[in-house]
Amino acid sequence: MNNSEIRDTFLKLPKADVHSHLHLAGSQKRFKEKYPEANLTFPKSFDGLSGMIDFIYRQLNTILIEGKDVINFMEIAIESAIDDNVTLLEASVDLNLARFFDGKVEKIIEITRHLKEKYKSQIDFRPELGINKDLEHERVYSDGIKCIESGVFKSVDLYGQEIGKDLKPFVRFYDMAKDFGLKTKVHIGEFSDYESIDYTIKLLAPNELQHGLSAVDSKKTMDCILKNNIRLNICPTSNILMGAVTNIKKHSIRQLFDYGIKVTVNTDDLILFNASVTDEFVKLAKSNIFTFDELETIRKNAF
Hints:
Strands 1, 2, 3, 4, 5, 6, 7, 8 and 9 form a 9-stranded parallel sheet that branches. Strand 2 (about 85-95), helix 5 (about 105-120) and strand 3 form a beta-alpha-beta unit. The chain has helices at about 5-10, 30-35, 50-60, 65-85, 105-120, 135-150, 170-180, 195-205, 220-225, 235-240, 255-260, 270-275, 275-285, 290-300; strands at about 15-20, 85-95, 125, 130, 155-160, 185-190, 210, 230-235, 265. It has 14 helices and 9 strands. It has one domain: TIM Barrel (Alpha-Beta Barrel), CATH 3.20.20. Helix 1 packs antiparallel against helix 13 (about 275-285). By secondary structure, it is an alpha/beta fold.
Protein backbone atom coordinates (compact mmCIF):
# COMPACT_ATOMS: atom_id res chain seq x y z
CA MET A 1 0.00 0.00 0.00
CA ASN A 2 1.13 3.54 -0.68
CA ASN A 3 1.01 6.23 1.99
CA SER A 4 -2.46 7.42 1.03
CA GLU A 5 -3.86 3.89 1.10
CA ILE A 6 -2.26 3.23 4.48
CA ARG A 7 -3.87 6.37 5.94
CA ASP A 8 -7.28 5.61 4.42
CA THR A 9 -7.15 2.07 5.77
CA PHE A 10 -6.37 3.10 9.33
CA LEU A 11 -8.78 6.02 9.28
CA LYS A 12 -11.66 3.71 8.36
CA LEU A 13 -10.84 1.19 11.08
CA PRO A 14 -12.52 1.66 14.48
CA LYS A 15 -9.91 2.64 17.04
CA ALA A 16 -9.55 3.24 20.75
CA ASP A 17 -7.67 6.03 22.49
CA VAL A 18 -6.96 4.88 26.04
CA HIS A 19 -4.28 7.39 27.04
CA SER A 20 -5.70 10.85 26.63
CA HIS A 21 -6.23 13.93 28.81
CA LEU A 22 -9.65 15.23 27.89
CA HIS A 23 -9.26 19.00 28.16
CA LEU A 24 -6.03 18.75 26.09
CA ALA A 25 -7.35 16.19 23.60
CA GLY A 26 -8.90 18.42 20.94
CA SER A 27 -7.29 18.72 17.54
CA GLN A 28 -5.57 21.97 16.65
CA LYS A 29 -7.96 22.25 13.72
CA ARG A 30 -11.07 22.13 15.90
CA PHE A 31 -9.42 24.40 18.47
CA LYS A 32 -8.78 27.07 15.83
CA GLU A 33 -12.34 26.76 14.56
CA LYS A 34 -13.68 27.26 18.08
CA TYR A 35 -11.23 30.05 18.94
CA PRO A 36 -10.43 31.76 15.61
CA GLU A 37 -9.01 34.83 17.36
CA ALA A 38 -6.57 32.82 19.48
CA ASN A 39 -3.00 33.85 18.75
CA LEU A 40 -1.18 30.67 19.71
CA THR A 41 1.81 29.05 18.06
CA PHE A 42 2.13 25.43 19.09
CA PRO A 43 5.76 24.33 19.61
CA LYS A 44 7.30 21.68 17.37
CA SER A 45 8.76 20.05 20.49
CA PHE A 46 8.89 20.51 24.26
CA ASP A 47 11.70 20.57 26.78
CA GLY A 48 10.43 17.63 28.77
CA LEU A 49 7.44 17.68 31.09
CA SER A 50 8.41 21.03 32.59
CA GLY A 51 8.53 22.60 29.11
CA MET A 52 5.08 21.27 28.30
CA ILE A 53 3.66 22.54 31.57
CA ASP A 54 5.26 25.94 30.95
CA PHE A 55 3.56 26.19 27.54
CA ILE A 56 0.19 25.22 29.02
CA TYR A 57 0.40 27.80 31.81
CA ARG A 58 1.93 30.62 29.78
CA GLN A 59 0.09 30.13 26.50
CA LEU A 60 -2.84 27.71 26.47
CA ASN A 61 -4.23 28.97 29.75
CA THR A 62 -4.65 32.45 28.22
CA ILE A 63 -7.53 30.80 26.33
CA LEU A 64 -8.65 28.28 28.94
CA ILE A 65 -9.75 30.84 31.50
CA GLU A 66 -13.27 30.00 32.70
CA GLY A 67 -15.77 27.19 33.01
CA LYS A 68 -17.27 27.55 29.56
CA ASP A 69 -13.79 27.12 28.07
CA VAL A 70 -13.31 23.89 29.98
CA ILE A 71 -16.54 22.58 28.47
CA ASN A 72 -15.50 23.80 25.01
CA PHE A 73 -12.13 22.06 25.28
CA MET A 74 -13.78 18.83 26.40
CA GLU A 75 -16.33 18.91 23.59
CA ILE A 76 -13.78 19.54 20.84
CA ALA A 77 -11.75 16.65 22.28
CA ILE A 78 -14.62 14.20 21.94
CA GLU A 79 -15.49 15.55 18.50
CA SER A 80 -11.85 15.22 17.42
CA ALA A 81 -11.86 11.58 18.50
CA ILE A 82 -15.03 11.01 16.48
CA ASP A 83 -13.36 12.69 13.47
CA ASP A 84 -10.63 10.04 13.69
CA ASN A 85 -13.12 7.15 13.94
CA VAL A 86 -12.16 6.53 17.55
CA THR A 87 -15.05 4.48 18.88
CA LEU A 88 -13.73 3.98 22.42
CA LEU A 89 -12.32 6.93 24.34
CA GLU A 90 -10.85 6.58 27.82
CA ALA A 91 -9.88 10.17 28.56
CA SER A 92 -9.02 11.64 31.94
CA VAL A 93 -10.97 14.51 33.44
CA ASP A 94 -8.57 16.32 35.75
CA LEU A 95 -9.90 16.57 39.30
CA ASN A 96 -8.39 20.05 39.65
CA LEU A 97 -10.62 21.39 36.86
CA ALA A 98 -13.08 22.03 39.67
CA ARG A 99 -11.13 25.25 40.22
CA PHE A 100 -12.92 26.70 37.17
CA PHE A 101 -16.27 26.09 38.89
CA ASP A 102 -15.70 27.69 42.30
CA GLY A 103 -14.04 24.50 43.50
CA LYS A 104 -17.25 22.48 43.14
CA VAL A 105 -16.33 18.97 42.05
CA GLU A 106 -20.05 18.22 41.70
CA LYS A 107 -20.02 20.47 38.65
CA ILE A 108 -17.24 18.41 37.07
CA ILE A 109 -19.25 15.25 37.68
CA GLU A 110 -22.35 16.87 36.16
CA ILE A 111 -20.51 18.10 33.05
CA THR A 112 -18.80 14.76 32.49
CA ARG A 113 -22.10 12.88 32.84
CA HIS A 114 -23.71 15.28 30.35
CA LEU A 115 -20.94 14.83 27.77
CA LYS A 116 -21.12 11.05 28.03
CA GLU A 117 -24.87 11.22 27.39
CA LYS A 118 -24.59 13.84 24.63
CA TYR A 119 -22.18 11.82 22.50
CA LYS A 120 -23.28 8.27 23.39
CA SER A 121 -24.67 7.56 19.91
CA GLN A 122 -21.32 8.49 18.32
CA ILE A 123 -18.66 7.20 20.68
CA ASP A 124 -18.19 5.02 23.75
CA PHE A 125 -16.76 7.68 26.05
CA ARG A 126 -15.57 6.16 29.31
CA PRO A 127 -14.52 9.06 31.55
CA GLU A 128 -11.38 8.63 33.60
CA LEU A 129 -10.64 10.51 36.80
CA GLY A 130 -7.27 12.21 36.41
CA ILE A 131 -5.24 13.13 39.49
CA ASN A 132 -2.01 15.10 39.55
CA LYS A 133 0.48 13.77 42.09
CA ASP A 134 0.94 17.33 43.39
CA LEU A 135 -2.73 17.80 44.26
CA GLU A 136 -3.42 18.23 47.96
CA HIS A 137 -4.10 14.80 49.44
CA GLU A 138 -7.10 16.12 51.33
CA ARG A 139 -8.75 17.03 48.01
CA VAL A 140 -7.82 13.70 46.46
CA TYR A 141 -9.79 11.97 49.18
CA SER A 142 -12.65 14.45 49.61
CA ASP A 143 -13.39 15.33 45.98
CA GLY A 144 -11.90 12.19 44.46
CA ILE A 145 -14.12 9.90 46.51
CA LYS A 146 -17.19 11.85 45.37
CA CYS A 147 -16.11 11.18 41.80
CA ILE A 148 -15.56 7.46 42.17
CA GLU A 149 -18.83 7.10 44.07
CA SER A 150 -20.73 8.97 41.34
CA GLY A 151 -20.61 6.06 38.90
CA VAL A 152 -19.62 8.45 36.11
CA PHE A 153 -15.94 7.52 36.01
CA LYS A 154 -14.73 4.13 34.80
CA SER A 155 -11.03 4.41 35.66
CA VAL A 156 -8.50 6.51 37.54
CA ASP A 157 -5.11 7.80 36.43
CA LEU A 158 -2.26 9.34 38.40
CA TYR A 159 0.13 11.66 36.56
CA GLY A 160 2.67 14.45 36.88
CA GLN A 161 6.37 14.31 37.66
CA GLU A 162 7.60 10.71 37.71
CA ILE A 163 10.82 11.16 39.67
CA GLY A 164 10.99 11.80 43.41
CA LYS A 165 7.25 11.58 44.09
CA ASP A 166 5.88 9.68 47.07
CA LEU A 167 3.04 7.47 45.87
CA LYS A 168 2.22 5.99 49.29
CA PRO A 169 -0.54 8.57 50.01
CA PHE A 170 -2.46 7.24 47.01
CA VAL A 171 -2.53 3.57 48.05
CA ARG A 172 -5.79 3.78 49.97
CA PHE A 173 -7.41 5.82 47.20
CA TYR A 174 -6.44 3.21 44.60
CA ASP A 175 -7.80 0.46 46.81
CA MET A 176 -11.09 2.34 47.08
CA ALA A 177 -11.24 2.86 43.32
CA LYS A 178 -10.79 -0.88 42.81
CA ASP A 179 -13.51 -1.59 45.36
CA PHE A 180 -15.86 0.47 43.18
CA GLY A 181 -14.86 -1.51 40.09
CA LEU A 182 -12.74 1.20 38.49
CA LYS A 183 -9.75 0.34 36.32
CA THR A 184 -6.48 1.83 37.59
CA LYS A 185 -3.68 3.45 35.61
CA VAL A 186 -0.47 5.28 36.52
CA HIS A 187 1.90 7.47 34.50
CA ILE A 188 5.38 6.04 35.01
CA GLY A 189 8.45 5.00 33.05
CA GLU A 190 8.56 7.75 30.44
CA PHE A 191 11.22 9.83 32.20
CA SER A 192 11.83 7.54 35.17
CA ASP A 193 13.76 4.25 35.26
CA TYR A 194 12.55 0.67 35.38
CA GLU A 195 12.96 0.59 39.17
CA SER A 196 10.24 3.25 39.44
CA ILE A 197 7.98 0.92 37.46
CA ASP A 198 8.77 -1.98 39.80
CA TYR A 199 7.99 0.22 42.80
CA THR A 200 4.72 1.51 41.31
CA ILE A 201 3.48 -1.98 40.47
CA LYS A 202 4.34 -3.25 43.95
CA LEU A 203 2.70 -0.28 45.68
CA LEU A 204 -0.42 0.46 43.60
CA ALA A 205 -0.90 -2.73 41.54
CA PRO A 206 -2.32 -0.80 38.55
CA ASN A 207 -4.12 -2.50 35.68
CA GLU A 208 -2.29 -0.36 33.13
CA LEU A 209 0.75 1.88 32.82
CA GLN A 210 0.68 5.11 30.84
CA HIS A 211 3.98 5.02 28.88
CA GLY A 212 6.14 2.49 30.80
CA LEU A 213 8.93 2.78 28.22
CA SER A 214 11.85 2.14 30.56
CA ALA A 215 10.54 -1.35 31.35
CA VAL A 216 12.59 -2.45 28.34
CA ASP A 217 15.76 -1.90 30.37
CA SER A 218 14.99 -4.76 32.75
CA LYS A 219 13.93 -8.32 31.96
CA LYS A 220 12.69 -8.62 35.55
CA THR A 221 10.43 -5.59 35.09
CA MET A 222 9.05 -6.87 31.80
CA ASP A 223 8.42 -10.27 33.40
CA CYS A 224 6.55 -8.51 36.22
CA ILE A 225 4.40 -6.66 33.69
CA LEU A 226 3.63 -9.91 31.89
CA LYS A 227 2.92 -11.82 35.10
CA ASN A 228 0.44 -9.17 36.23
CA ASN A 229 -1.11 -8.80 32.76
CA ILE A 230 -0.45 -5.05 32.77
CA ARG A 231 -1.08 -3.16 29.54
CA LEU A 232 1.19 -0.31 28.42
CA ASN A 233 -0.64 2.61 26.81
CA ILE A 234 2.05 4.27 24.71
CA CYS A 235 2.05 7.61 22.86
CA PRO A 236 4.96 7.55 20.37
CA THR A 237 4.70 11.12 19.05
CA SER A 238 4.33 12.53 22.56
CA ASN A 239 7.39 10.54 23.70
CA ILE A 240 9.45 11.98 20.83
CA LEU A 241 8.28 15.59 21.08
CA MET A 242 8.80 15.55 24.84
CA GLY A 243 12.36 14.30 24.41
CA ALA A 244 11.90 10.93 26.10
CA VAL A 245 12.75 9.20 22.81
CA THR A 246 15.08 10.47 20.08
CA ASN A 247 13.09 9.24 17.10
CA ILE A 248 10.54 6.61 16.08
CA LYS A 249 13.24 4.11 15.06
CA LYS A 250 14.66 4.17 18.60
CA HIS A 251 11.32 3.81 20.34
CA SER A 252 11.08 0.83 22.71
CA ILE A 253 7.54 -0.10 21.64
CA ARG A 254 8.89 -2.74 19.25
CA GLN A 255 10.97 -4.45 21.94
CA LEU A 256 8.09 -4.39 24.40
CA PHE A 257 5.76 -5.88 21.80
CA ASP A 258 8.27 -8.60 20.90
CA TYR A 259 8.56 -9.54 24.58
CA GLY A 260 4.86 -10.29 24.58
CA ILE A 261 3.71 -7.23 26.50
CA LYS A 262 0.31 -5.89 25.48
CA VAL A 263 0.83 -2.39 24.07
CA THR A 264 -1.49 0.24 22.59
CA VAL A 265 -0.87 3.50 20.72
CA ASN A 266 -2.59 6.71 21.75
CA THR A 267 -2.58 10.50 21.49
CA ASP A 268 -1.78 11.70 25.04
CA ASP A 269 -2.50 15.42 24.41
CA LEU A 270 -3.71 15.83 20.84
CA ILE A 271 -3.81 19.63 20.98
CA LEU A 272 -0.11 19.73 21.90
CA PHE A 273 1.35 16.87 19.86
CA ASN A 274 -0.92 17.10 16.81
CA ALA A 275 -0.95 13.35 16.09
CA SER A 276 -4.22 11.40 15.98
CA VAL A 277 -4.44 7.68 16.63
CA THR A 278 -4.55 7.20 12.85
CA ASP A 279 -1.40 9.31 12.53
CA GLU A 280 0.35 7.09 15.08
CA PHE A 281 -0.51 3.92 13.18
CA VAL A 282 0.56 5.46 9.88
CA LYS A 283 3.93 6.57 11.30
CA LEU A 284 4.63 3.11 12.69
CA ALA A 285 3.68 1.52 9.37
CA LYS A 286 5.65 3.94 7.17
CA SER A 287 8.72 3.58 9.41
CA ASN A 288 8.52 -0.21 9.07
CA ILE A 289 8.38 -0.60 12.84
CA PHE A 290 5.44 -3.00 12.55
CA THR A 291 3.67 -4.94 9.83
CA PHE A 292 0.00 -4.30 9.17
CA ASP A 293 -0.97 -7.52 10.96
CA GLU A 294 1.06 -6.49 14.01
CA LEU A 295 -0.58 -3.08 14.02
CA GLU A 296 -3.92 -4.84 13.86
CA THR A 297 -2.99 -6.70 17.03
CA ILE A 298 -2.02 -3.41 18.69
CA ARG A 299 -5.28 -1.78 17.54
CA LYS A 300 -7.32 -4.63 19.01
CA ASN A 301 -5.30 -4.57 22.25
CA ALA A 302 -6.88 -1.22 23.11
CA PHE A 303 -10.37 -2.72 23.06
